[in-house]
Amino acid sequence: MTIEQHRDLAGEFPELRQRIHDLKAGSSEFRALYAEYQELDNEIHRVEMDIETPSDDFTEELKIRRAHLKDRLYGLLTGRLHPAEDTEEYVVRHRFRVPVDHGEVSRTWQERGFSCDTFSDPPGQEWKDFTHGTNELLTVVDGQLVVTLHGSDYTLNPGDELFIPRGATHTVCNAHTGSTLWLYGYD
Fold first, then answer.
1. Number of neighbouring beta carbons within 10 Å of residue 75
2. Do residues 47 and 21 share a domain?
């Protein structure tokens, strides 16, 4: 029997480390699936170390369940699978201190492989049904935006960060009575 190493998600998907951290902190659905994945991975590791000795069929079933969970988690991480409706899956509230420091956001996003540019929208401005070939991050500096993504509306205030998966159709609307200043970046 070949002994496998633990298959921690951060090790499996190093480019998604920050996203894993964000979802573990902000999404109960992701946290529950991640805990189940870790439990299965630990059980498989105990079997491979001969600490436990179940049947080969049971061990194979555990590995298949772990692979299915890994696929589901990867889908949530990349936005290929949509979370349950009315979740905050794509938002990290209060990600940045207010007042938002453009330099801090730029450095943080650059470390994560994202650009960082500034945009200002007048009251009522709406950017309807956009899609991009890359992932996008968005943070409000001053004002308020409402972003419609996968049929859910996300109201963003200064310091909140929204992850928009590549290929996801989204609408951005300035919901503030004045201009809204916001930052966006692509990976």
1. 14
2. yes
Question: Considering the domain boundaries, does residue 24 fall inside one?
Answer: yes
- Mind listing the pLDDT tens digit for each residue in 34-84? 888 888 888 888 888 777 676 777 778 888 888 888 888 888 887 665 555
Distance between CA 77 and CA 22 in Å, rounded? 10
All residues at 6 or more sequence positions from 46 whose CB lies less than 8 Å from its CB, including other chains: 52
- Say which DSSP state 3 is in: P
What total number of domains does the chain contain?
2
Secondary structure (3-state) at 123: coil
Residue 137 is part of which domain span?
91-186
Domain-embedded: residue 84: no
Residues 33 and 118 in one domain: no
Distance of alpha carbon 88 from alpha carbon 177, whole angstroms: 24
Of residues 186 and 25, which shows the higher confidence score? 186
Q: pLDDT tens-digit profile of 88-138?
A: 667 878 888 999 999 999 998 998 889 999 999 999 999 999 999 888 999
Which of 53, 78, 103 is the endpoint of a domain? 78
List the helix and strand counts (H, then E) for the chain: 5, 9
